[in-house]
Design brief:
single chain; about 15% strand; about 300 residues; two-stranded antiparallel sheet; seven-stranded parallel beta sheet; globular; alpha/beta
Length: about 300
């Protein structure tokens, strides 16, 4: 079974206890080389997460956890990478919906869609960092309901010069948003691994993008929800690191198990000790028999 693969971009996120040492001192030059290599090899997309500020006192408690302490801004980073690539898609993974008005997202990422010639995938999520919501003056307790309406408002706004929407939290009409997304329907992938996240993704999104999950959990979640969107994407990271250079058969098995469980795109987490090692791992992934190169819509 062949399957497309994306990359969870190194350097832009640092997780204490998990991030290799070389990433801590790397910068935009290294990120650009990763993006250019992934673009040339036929990877589907690259990512960049969003957090404005995280609690400093919790850094030691994060060791071994999943929340990072360094986050590159996704719009700035992806805009730069748009100019260094030609085919690979650009995905904020994920934007915290409660931090932004839907029209602000539509304007910023619509502009990025223009700059990149229609290569944006909008990864969105509800968010869990109460202290960050409070810092930004964003409501926390009803963030799920607000997120649902925000996704619906984004549907009405993306790609529209004069969008209109009326809901409980957001209303707009008679306003020009220019530039706007060039894609007729910009894909919206919803993040999170909970039942609520899967429900939100299948009801309102074009895809679901959980963190690394096992094939068993993936199969269980998908068995209970029917996507509303046509060509719904299930974008899953590997729960464990793989080494396609040293253990190509095992790497193919791990990726294949996720594909068999319902993944349509896999983001492999690979072992790497330097930039060159990471780039070699990308090449090794692209040489696996299960690798399906991404074909832009314009080339299909």
């Amino acid at each position: 079974m062949r399957i497309r693969m994306g990359i969870s971009t190194p350097v832009v996120l640092e997780i204490p206890g998990r991030t290799p040492e070389w990433e801590r001192t790397a910068g935009i030059a290294e990120i650009a080389r990763i993006a250019e290599t992934a673009d040339r090899l036929g990877f589907d997309h690259l990512t960049c997460s969003e957090h404005v500020a995280v609690a400093a006192h919790s850094e030691s408690a994060m060791l071994g956890g999943s929340r990072g302490t360094r986050y590159w801004d996704p719009l700035s980073t992806l805009s730069y990478l748009a100019a260094r690539t030609t085919r690979i898609r650009l995905c904020p993974s994920v934007l915290v919906l409660g931090y932004h008005h839907p029209l602000a997202i539509a304007k910023r990422y619509g502009t990025l869609d223009v700059i990149s010639a229609g290569r944006v995938v909008l990864g969105v999520g509800v968010g869990t960092a109460r202290e960050e919501f409070e810092l930004l003056g964003a409501p926390f307790t009803d963030r799920g309901r607000r997120a649902d309406e925000s996704i619906t408002a984004l549907r009405a706004a993306l790609g529209q010069r004069v969008p209109e929407f009326s809901g409980r939290y957001y209303r707009f009409e008679g306003l020009v948003v220019d530039p706007h997304a060039v894609q007729e329907r910009m894909p919206i992938w919803v993040g999170g691994s909970s039942d609520a996240a899967v429900r939100r993704a299948t009801a309102l999104g074009d895809g679901w993008i959980p963190a690394g999950v096992t094939p068993e959990l993936l199969r269980d979640r998908l068995s209970r929800y029917q996507p509303a969107a046509k060509d719904f994407e299930v974008v899953v990271g590997t729960a464990q690191s793989i080494d396609p250079i040293s253990e190509p058969a095992r790497a193919a098995d791990v990726i294949g198990a996720l594909a068999a469980a319902g993944a349509t795109i896999v983001q492999p987490r690979v072992r790497h000790e330097s930039l060159d090692h990471y780039l070699d791992q990308l090449t090794a992934l692209s040489e696996l028999s299960c690798f399906e190169p991404f074909t832009p819509a314009a080339d299909r």
